[in-house]
Design brief:
single chain; alpha/beta; Rossmann fold; seven-stranded parallel β-sheet; five-stranded parallel β-sheet; globular
Length: 317
């Protein structure tokens, strides 16, 4: 019998899947304080993980733990160095969220380009036509988008951009030009030049020492004044204070953020008061359909791991 800790609840479809396997039992842990995790986790063979952190301060007490199954694709909330040293496998739901995130990017691009929130406010406050002349809006047709990172989400996003007849550049050192070209894009190798020519920039890269504050004031200053920046990857890739400054100085047109350096966002963060930014609470994957896919895949990964048939694409190396 394998004991599985469900750290933070997710869609019930995942739990129903686990219940169908008699060789597994599980316990839901919603109190994710360090003290409680240290108390509870040592008895489990595996666990699922949403947004809580599993670092060495907790993991060093978990001698039985063999696998962590992330409810998502990011893993900056897991101590990779520790789990590698201690032979703990980390799994992700690699194939479940790309559609939802790509759609969220397009929602942000369209909302900012068309001034949706401003137009909505005008109608609700009685400025039906009077406010229109003061709201600048943009078309997507024939505009250039730079997709930064070309994994599954980037590959879904490119399809949607093609639907709007956009010109698509891709920056990803790990994907060859033939692959990008076959999907309708053009590979670029000079990030600075790509940023300078782009009308839209969409980020799809992990947070690491190399990517932290990748987009700072210096880089934002090189972008077009009509450029729109979207981040649905990880907070910290963009320097938030630099972004706020760039927007206030009208160096770029607008930004859409689904992720933040600190989550939940501190209420004194100036981004919250900046009307040139469209915000969402790390919710790009929160469609009904995606929540079901992620829950099922999170659990299926656990089952497949112990039954020794795990899909290698789900394993973080």
């Amino acid at each position: 019998m394998y004991k599985i800790a469900i750290i933070e609840e997710f869609h019930e479809s995942g739990l129903e899947l686990l219940k169908k396997h008699s060789n597994f039992e599980f316990e839901i842990i919603n109190d994710t304080s360090e003290e409680n995790l240290i108390k509870k986790l040592p008895k489990f063979d595996g666990c699922t993980l949403r947004v809580s952190k599993l670092y060495s301060n907790v993991l060093k007490h978990c001698k039985k733990l063999k696998v962590i199954s992330r409810h998502g694709v990011g893993y900056d909330n897991v101590d990779l160095e520790y789990i590698k040293k201690n032979n703990i496998t980390l799994l992700i739901t690699a194939t479940t969220n790309a559609l939802a995130v790509a759609e969220h990017v397009m929602y942000m691009i369209l909302s900012i380009s068309k001034g949706i929130t401003s137009h909505d406010h005008s109608v609700r406050t009685g400025l039906f036509k009077e406010g229109v002349k003061d709201i600048q809006t943009l078309e997507l047709f024939n505009k250039e988008i730079l997709i930064l990172g070309f994994g599954r989400i980037g590959k879904e996003l490119i399809k949607r951009c093609q639907g709007f007849s956009m010109k698509i550049n891709v920056f990803d050192p790990y994907v060859n030009s033939e692959t990008i070209k076959s999907l309708g894009g053009k590979k670029i190798t000079d990030l600075d030049k790509g940023l300078a020519s782009a009308d839209y920039v969409s980020l799809h890269i992990p947070l690491s020492e190399k990517t932290k504050n990748l987009l700072n004031y210096k880089k934002l200053k090189t972008m077009k004044k009509t450029a729109i920046l979207i981040n649905t990857s990880r907070g910290g890739v963009i320097n938030e204070m630099d972004l706020n400054k760039a927007l206030n100085e009208r160096l770029i047109f607008g930004a859409g953020l689904d992720v933040f350096e600190k989550e939940p966002v501190n209420l004194n963060n100036p981004l919250l008061k900046n009307k040139k930014i469209l915000l969402s609470p790390h919710s790009a994957t929160f469609t009904d359909e995606c929540k079901i896919r992620m829950a099922k895949q999170t659990v299926q990964n656990i089952i497949d791991f112990f039954e020794k048939k795990i899909d290698k694409s789900m394993v973080v190396k």
